[in-house]
Write a structure and sequence with these properties.
binds flavin-adenine dinucleotide; Arc Repressor Mutant, subunit A; alpha+beta; about 35% helix; about 675 residues; eight-stranded mixed sheet; Elongation Factor Tu (Ef-tu), domain 3; 4 domains; FAD/NAD(P)-binding domain
């Protein structure tokens, strides 16, 4: 009998989207033999929707990823065509970098990086099956209360019947492709994005493909279900694209990029990103568009019941905006180039699944788009994904060892959210294979921690999108200090070079020294000083004051004091910015640091992964249900589970103190940093 293809790898990555690329690069850069599968090798790091990387809170994710040793920041610095720092009129916590990519160049540059990475192979093939083994175990003895809680859950949510299946422990040892080829692996990462059983819809049209007509993956879901994984179905949508040569820009407002450009990656020399940028254009829909949409709303699959899955609340379609805000006749549309080698333009704000003829009429009702020629229709896409509460904080399935997941597959939305999770899943796959501790970032260390903690802790019935308001410590987790917060961790994992780490350490020292100098340098209420203050519309000094105190005045900052601070050392712009922020916001920063210490205390109270909460008297049935489902790693995580009340947390704390819940060490709990 002929033998099919059979190969061995350390790590298999299923998917070469934004999550899969980061996962594959992380694992391969850590020296593990890695293979990444994609249904199309021509669409690696493909951007099927908006042309941006970054934006509010998403920019934070990219910078954190960069500080840890990820690739997205480098890739967008090579391929951006416009760049902006958003929210600059607000406080530094919400400043967010956003760059518009040349989509084709972005994809090509990432592919090149993958191809040039040692230990990494790219394979175009559809993975159809997981190879798993059942791990024999003693049958779990359940308390009467636990049985009751599970029965109540099955009655409430009959679709979750596979829960019992889910409790069988398995180990993932590889994958099979549709051709029957077998790829053995010590760890597997699922990063299938929007491709599993994907279905694209607009009007009456149904196409069973992934985005842009790319092949969907139709077999893997069954294999995942057979392994006890509970699947969800989500949807998202994209707007039409038009030919820029048919757009009348004279009726639109020009939106230009920033000068100077701030690079995404801390490694990029700012001089290298000062290049010619493209303009985007702002226009608005009007009463006519709203009328056309209302008259045809029953032809939208979103409204006529054809789409049952839920979409991202924060990226509503144009029909959603019109129907949900009937008093608002006008909605912003940004017309954005898709790249340097195409005339195709993206109509940001006009995502839709209306029929083609309605889309045309809506587009042509918009000032400047009256004669626009449509290149691609808008459409919605439905796909299979998971309830990420099946994962632990390291993104490994709780009941399938060696199987990790990242990206849109975990119920998130967005390139940056995908990349951040993909990186963490790839690193943790590598940690497992190398016998190192799982690597977890907590909520006080980064937005990446917030993202993953939210996904694995909180039930969500819609695609999860990152927002600055999701972080409790956003004054500490700024995009400008991501290198200072996370490069040390990246270095410890092995993905940040000694050279990069030394650069960050030097920056830290310079910041500390300069803050000390400013706090110890006093200026008197001299005539010169009073004149300088008056020139800068600041009140005169009553007595001598330190330079730090002067910087704290709302109308002044570190940069403005250059003329009166002769002893100032020469610092680069980023270092000086840190000095300024740390001095101006010192009080707030200290307060948040105190809150972080409180938070860490609760995160440090570890809970055993195999504990049956039904054995704890005075816990409510709902709390038992939720705690047994999530199996939180700490009291801190337990407190964020919806359905677990502060009173339940007190019960857990009392039981933990009394030794009724077994106290465990960091090692037993899976460890923390790499
Ligand atoms: C129509 C549309 C609209 C969107 N709108 C927005 C938006 O407005 N805002 C936003 O932030 N995000 C939007 N997104 C989402 C954005 O595209 C995703 O968040 C991002 O691409 C997810 O990255 P990912 O790596 O998780 O998955 P993807 O980029 O989807 O990549 C998945 C990868 O997995 C591969 N794959 C899947 N299954 C298999 C298999 N069985 N075998 C082998 N390979 C497999 C695919 O080939 C692909 O390489 C939209 C996506 C689409 C399609």
């Amino acid at each position: 009998m002929e033998k099919g293809i059979e190969e061995n790898y350390d790590v298999v990555i299923i998917g070469a989207g934004h999550a899969g690329c980061e996962a594959a690069l992380a694992a391969a850069r850590l020296g593990l033999e890695t293979i990444v599968f994609t249904v199309s090798a021509d669409s690696i790091a493909f951007m099927p929707c908006n042309p941006h990387v970054g934006g509010t809170s998403k920019g934070h994710l990219v910078r954190e990823l960069d500080a840890l040793g990820g690739e997205m920041g480098h890739n967008i610095d090579k391929t951006f065509i416009q760049s902006k720092m958003l929210n600059e009129s607000k406080g530094p916590a919400v400043h967010s970098l956003r760059a518009q990519a040349d989509k084709h160049a972005y994809s090509c540059a990432m592919r090149k990086t993958l191809e040039n990475t040692p230990h990494l192979s790219i394979r175009q093939a559809e993975v159809s099956e997981l190879i798993t083994e059942i791990i024999p175990q003693e049958p779990e003895k359940k308390t009467e209360k636990t049985e009751k809680a599970e029965k109540a859950e099955r009655t409430e949510k009959p679709e979750k019947e596979s829960r019992d299946q889910n409790q069988i422990l398995r180990k993932c040892t590889g994958v099979k492709t549709v051709s029957g080829a077998v790829y053995h692996a010590k760890a597997v990462v699922l990063a299938t994005g929007v491709y599993l059983n994907a279905r694209c819809l607009f009007g009456e049209v149904r196409e069973y493909t992934g985005p842009n007509g790319l092949k969907s993956a139709v077999y893997l879901t069954d294999s995942l279900k057979a392994n006890g994984i509970i699947m969800y179905r989500f949807k998202t949508g994209t707007p039409a694209r038009v030919d820029g040569r048919t757009v009348d820009f004279s009726k639109m407002k020009e939106q230009m990029g920033d000068i100077p450009v701030v690079p995404f990656s801390f490694d990029t020399d700012p001089a290298d990103v000062q290049k010619k940028q493209v303009s985007c254009w702002l226009t608005h829909t009007g009463a006519e568009a709203a009328k056309i949409i209302r008259e045809n709303i029953d032809r939208s699959p979103l409204y006529n019941g054809s789409i049952k899955s839920t979409g991202p609340r924060y990226c509503p379609s144009i029909e959603d905006k019109v129907m949900k805000f009937p008093d608002k006749d006008s909605h912003q549309i940004f017309v954005e180039p898709e790249g340097m080698n195409t005339h195709e333009m993206y109509l940001d704000g006009m995502s839709s699944s209306l029929p083609e003829d309605v889309q045309y009429r809506v587009i042509h009702s918009v000032p400047g788009l009256e004669h626009a020629s449509v290149v691609r229709n808008a459409y919605a896409i439905e796909y299979d994904c998971i309830d990420a509460r099946q994962l632990s904080a390291s993104l490994e399935f709780k009941n399938i060892s060696g199987l990790f997941a990242g990206g849109q597959f975990n119920g998130s939305s967005g390139y940056e959210e995908a990349a951040a999770q993909g990186f963490m899943a790839g690193v943790n796959a590598a940690m497992l294979v190398s016998g190192r501790k799982p690597f977890v970032i907590d909520r006080s260390e980064g937005y990446i921690g917030v993202l993953i903690d939210d996904l694995v802790t909180k039930e969500s019935h819609e695609p999860y999108r990152m927002m600055t308001s999701r972080s409790e410590y956003r004054l500490l987790l700024r995009q400008d200090n991501a290198d200072l917060r996370l490069s040390g961790i990246g270095h410890k994992i092995g993905l940040v070079s000694d050279e990069k780490f030394e650069k960050v350490t030097k920056k830290e020292t310079e910041i500390r020294n300069e803050i000390t100098r400013l706090k110890n340098t006093t200026v008197g209420a001299t005539k010169n000083m009073q004149e300088w203050l008056s020139e800068h519309r600041s009140t005169p000094l009553k007595k001598g004051s330190t330079l730090a105190e002067i910087i704290c005045r709302p109308e002044l900052n570190y940069f403005m004091l250059t003329d009166i601070d002769a002893e100032r050392p020469l610092l680069d712009r980023e270092t000086a910015e840190q000095v300024n922020i740390n001095i101006k916001y010192e009080g707030y920063i200290h307060r948040q640091e105190q809150q972080v210490r409180q938070f860490q205390k609760m995160e440090g109270k570890l809970l055993p992964a195999d504990f049956d909460y039904g054995t704890v008297g005075s816990l409510r049935l709902e709390a038992i249900q939720k705690l047994n489902k999530v199996r939180p790693r700490s009291i801190g995580q337990a407190s964020r589970i919806s359905g677990v009340s502060p009173a339940d947390i007190t019960v857990l704390l009392v039981n933990l103190e009394a030794g009724k819940i077994r106290q465990i060490s960091e090692d037993e709990n899976g460890g923390k940093k790499g």
